């Protein structure tokens, strides 16, 4: 009998957790693009930020996902601390939706729900349809897991050992019992790192009569504290603002639990006005969970600005913290769709800087600017910067490829890596061009009027071509392969013509070998630079 109980409880818990994983993961995939547009609504308005937190958490069915995602955005400077606090408060409300899902008494239908969904998943062709069936299968597994745990826990109600164990944190035994139950809830949630899981266990224990409704409410209060451990772990190694957001999440929930515990009997009396715990204990627990979080948010929301200022004074950014160049953070991997979209934003930014660097190169040629000139250094620094950007883009997008994500996201991540590599190559050839010009100046070799005129032609065509490709990429107008091929061919033909004219002039008069080879190298680099622009178009059309 003991093994039978253990197998049912541990099996039910495993099925429940696995179901939560699939439901949350499926919801994230379904809501991926919607999350991106919802986060775009963020303003300095604390109420809007809070609503965003509620909606996103309700959509992905995980406060851990939304809070870790928020920590990532803060760490990448995509979100202010004030906005983050609003989102985190909203996430506390959004996570209560899980409790209301569990209120549905459809445990006996959980297994057929999971089974039918699994069969339909196997025969589905579309990735989107597969994701929907997988999500529904996860929901079925949640209810089936709860049913197994409920069946497993049932015999424990009459066993003296377990009766004594659960009485050790009985909230009806006084103030100490309430605190003990809250601590147990916090500890279990911190270990499992899922308040939804511990909420499900609490509901099963209460529905089987192993714990009373008062203890269940105290456990739920503790679970709200335990869930903050995920954000705290996510903030390790992060910048000060991310640490501030994680600490605020913990402090707000702890203070909330403290004030409710201090008036616990009155809180229970207040709850009984809405739901009778004897008639429906599951609904009672869900109501307690929701009421606590909604009330806590209403109390703290007006003071978000003050909390942010206080945290900024308490936690100071260390000088040795190296700021990343891009706004990409591994904590954002909770929402891969946003990672690939933000990567495109970063590539767009560098594209604008490359276009500006073209003008710096031409000014360097025309005015024979030295190495310490602003224009020369702009080109050099851009290439150095692009090396780092490429590394950051490749690192996080490679991690996206290891995740269980849909094919469109995988394709975008691969294109991000490939295009950033091409942009890096473009900046590399730009840097080589200015250094060759520097070498000519160091050897007192000046480009002739004819040389400059020809360079101006291939420079202009190369700039126009890159600008055309970059603008098409920004506007997501990828159907440009025919036109791009024509432009690339025009640059190749011009390159051949300039090279022929240059060699003809060299035959008429004696020139320095440094000037001859240097000029040819510059032409070659423009040609190679344009080849990489064409490769970007080819990547987009894969």
TrEMBL record:
Which subcellular locations apply to this protein? Cell membrane
Main localization of the protein described in the UniProt heading: membrane
Which keywords accompany this UniProt record? Answer: Cell membrane, Membrane, Transmembrane, Transmembrane helix
Q: Which SUPFAM superfamilies match?
A: PhoU-like (SSF109755)
Q: Which InterPro entries match?
A: Na/Pi_transpt (IPR003841), NaPi_cotrn-rel/YqeW-like (IPR004633), PhoU-like_sf (IPR038078), PhoU_dom (IPR026022)
Membrane-crossing residue ranges in chain numbering: 6-26, 47-72, 84-104, 133-153, 173-192, 246-268, 288-308
- Pfam families under this entry? Na_Pi_cotrans, PhoU
The annotated topology with respect to the bilayer is:
Multi-pass membrane protein
Q: Which residues form the PhoU domain?
A: 457-539
Which PANTHER family does this one have? SODIUM-DEPENDENT PHOSPHATE TRANSPORT PROTEIN 2B, SOLUTE CARRIER FAMILY 34 SODIUM PHOSPHATE , MEMBER 2-RELATED
Protein name, per record: Na/Pi cotransporter family protein
| Organism of derivation | Psychrilyobacter piezotolerans
């Amino acid at each position: 009998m003991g093994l039978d109980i253990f197998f049912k409880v541990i099996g039910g818990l495993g099925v429940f957790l696995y179901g939560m994983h699939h439901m949350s993961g499926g919801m994230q995939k379904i809501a991926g693009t919607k999350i991106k547009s919802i986060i775009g609504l963020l303003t300095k308005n604390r109420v809007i930020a809070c609503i965003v937190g509620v909606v996103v958490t309700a959509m992905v069915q995980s406060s851990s996902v939304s809070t870790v995602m928020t920590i990532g955005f803060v760490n990448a400077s995509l979100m202010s601390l004030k906005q983050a606090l609003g989102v985190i408060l909203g996430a506390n409300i959004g996570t209560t939706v899980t409790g209301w899902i569990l209120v549905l008494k459809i445990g006996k239908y959980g297994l057929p729900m999971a089974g039918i969904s699994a069969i339909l998943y196997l025969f589905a062709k579309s990735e989107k349809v597969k994701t929907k069936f997988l999500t529904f299968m996860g929901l079925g597994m949640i209810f089936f897991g709860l049913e197994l745990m409920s069946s497993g826990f049932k015999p424990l109600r009459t066993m003296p050992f377990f009766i004594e164990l659960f009485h050790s944190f009985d909230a009806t035994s006084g103030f100490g019992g309430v605190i003990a139950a809250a601590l147990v809830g916090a500890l279990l949630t911190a270990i499992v790192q899922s308040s939804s899981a511990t909420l499900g266990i609490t509901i099963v224990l209460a529905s089987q009569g192993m714990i009373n409704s008062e203890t269940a409410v105290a456990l739920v209060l503790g679970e709200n504290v335990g869930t903050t451990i995920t954000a705290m772990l996510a903030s390790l190694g992060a910048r000060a603002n991310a640490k501030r957001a994680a600490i605020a999440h913990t402090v707000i929930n702890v203070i909330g639990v403290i004030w409710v515990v201090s008036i616990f009997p009155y809180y229970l009396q207040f709850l009984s006005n809405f739901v009778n715990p004897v008639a429906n204990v599951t609904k009672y627990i869900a109501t307690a969970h929701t009421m606590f979080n909604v009330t806590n948010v209403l109390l703290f929301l007006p003071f978000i600005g003050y909390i942010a200022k206080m945290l900024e004074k308490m936690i100071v950014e260390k000088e040795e913290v190296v700021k990343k160049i891009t706004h990409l953070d591994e904590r954002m991997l909770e929402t891969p769709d946003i990672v690939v979209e933000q990567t495109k934003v970063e590539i767009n930014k560098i594209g604008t800087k490359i276009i500006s660097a073209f003008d710096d190169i031409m000014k360097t040629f025309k005015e024979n600017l030295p190495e310490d000139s602003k224009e020369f250094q702009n080109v050099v620094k851009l290439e150095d910067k692009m090396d780092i950007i490429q590394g950051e883009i490749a690192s996080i997008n490679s991690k996206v490829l290891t995740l269980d994500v849909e094919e469109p996201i995988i394709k975008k991540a691969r294109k991000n890596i490939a295009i950033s590599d091409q942009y890096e190559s473009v900046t590399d050839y730009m840097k080589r061009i200015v250094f060759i010009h520097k070498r000519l100046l160091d050897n007192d070799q000046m480009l002739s009027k004819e040389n400059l005129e020809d360079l101006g032609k291939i420079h202009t065509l190369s700039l126009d071509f890159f600008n055309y490709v970059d603008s098409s990429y920004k506007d997501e107008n990828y159907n440009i392969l025919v036109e791009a091929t024509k432009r690339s061919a025009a640059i190749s033909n011009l390159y051949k013509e300039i090279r022929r004219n240059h060699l003809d002039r060299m035959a008429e008069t004696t020139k320095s070998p440094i000037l001859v080879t240097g000029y040819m190298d510059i032409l070659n680099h423009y040609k190679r630079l344009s080849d990489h622009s064409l490769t970007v178009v080819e990547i987009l059309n894969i």
